[in-house]
């Protein structure tokens, strides 16, 4: 598996590994066998409990994720971002998508008992089950992985990073009419006071201001063009 370009740079290794197992439609144990790492060792990486990993293990993980060992180490130092408990998150997604537990059981092929445990917070889905939930609920797999890992770390008493605040959407600039633009044009080209202007200049300014806004702008642009040619 290679890294997905859509995965944020600050995604920790634990989330990346869980997401990789999801993408391969494998449980953590099966994915560990696929990349030739012990299942216990892989789970320790996913739970953030690995202290001094072997170089060979890091190389195998780097090969599975398509990244150099230095990047694997950097990702290891990142903490998962805080997220709602998985049960609450799952219930919210089911409500938003109008999914009953019976329907979700039927479409994911996950047992009703397992779903009950997920919703109550007693257990968390393995990577293959998490992938099924992502597909049926039409949720990005990386989001599911992030929430599962945050809940895993929290249940184990580990630390999670504060969720990054969402940037407020920028309001689209309001369309301005030619009349609204005219003061800006005048401000850029005309003196703030007429005290130092000659009578002829004052008359010209008065006539200019009586023009239609589009005429004022056209006049201003013409003068600017003449000045640029000097």
Structure commentary:
The structure is a single chain. By secondary structure, this protein is an all-alpha fold. The protein has two domains: 6-84 and 128-161, 434 Repressor (Amino-terminal Domain) (Orthogonal Bundle); 178-229. The chain has 13 helices and no strands. The model is unreliable at 1-5 and 176-194 (pLDDT under 50).
Topology of this protein?
Blueprint (H helix, E strand, L loop, with lengths): L12 H11 L4 H7 L4 H9 L7 H11 L3 H8 L9 H11 L4 H8 L3 H9 L6 H11 L3 H15 L22 H12 L9 H12 L2 H17 L1
Helix pairs in contact: 1-3, 1-9, 1-10, 2-3, 4-5, 6-8, 9-10, 11-13
Number of strands: 0
Mean pLDDT: 82
N- to C-terminal distance: 63 Å
Number of helices: 13
Instruction: Specify the biggest β-sheet.
Output: none
Helix content: 55-70%
Structural class: mainly alpha
Name the poorly predicted regions. 1-5, 176-194
What best-fitting shape do the alpha-carbon axes yield? Answer: elongated
Strand content: under 5%
CATH T-level topology of the largest domain: 434 Repressor (Amino-terminal Domain)
* The top level CATH class name of the largest domain: Mainly Alpha
The gyration radius over C-alpha positions equals 31 Å
Whole-number tally of structural domains: 2
CATH architecture of the largest domain: Orthogonal Bundle
- String of helices and strands: HHHHHHHHHHHHH
Put the structure in a nutshell:
With 230 residues, the protein is mainly α.
Provide the descriptors you would attach to this structure in a database record.
230 residues; elongated; 13 helices; 2 domains; 434 Repressor (Amino-terminal Domain); mainly alpha; disordered N terminus; single chain
């Amino acid at each position: 598996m290679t890294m997905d370009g859509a995965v944020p740079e600050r995604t920790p290794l634990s989330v990346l590994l869980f997401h990789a197992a999801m993408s391969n439609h494998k449980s953590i144990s099966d994915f560990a066998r696929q990349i030739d790492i012990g299942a216990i060792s892989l789970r320790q990486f996913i739970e953030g409990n690995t202290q001094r990993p072997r170089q060979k293990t890091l190389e195998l993980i780097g090969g599975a994720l398509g990244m150099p060992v230095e990047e694997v180490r950097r990702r290891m130092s990142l903490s998962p971002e805080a997220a709602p408990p998985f049960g609450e998150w799952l219930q919210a997604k089911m409500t938003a998508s109008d999914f009953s537990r019976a329907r979700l059981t039927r479409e994911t092929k996950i047992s009703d008992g397992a779903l009950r445990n997920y919703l109550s917070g007693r257990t968390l889905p393995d990577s293959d089950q998490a992938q099924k939930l992502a597909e049926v609920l039409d949720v990005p797999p990386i989001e599911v992985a992030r929430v599962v890992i945050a809940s895993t770390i929290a249940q184990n008493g580990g630390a999670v990073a504060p969720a990054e605040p969402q940037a407020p959407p920028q309001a689209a600039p309001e369309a301005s009419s030619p009349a609204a633009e005219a003061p800006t044009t005048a401000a850029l080209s005309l003196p703030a006071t007429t005290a130092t202007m000659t009578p002829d200049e004052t008359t010209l300014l008065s006539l200019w201001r009586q023009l239609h806004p589009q005429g004022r702008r056209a006049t201003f642009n013409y003068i600017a063009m003449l000045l640029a040619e000097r």
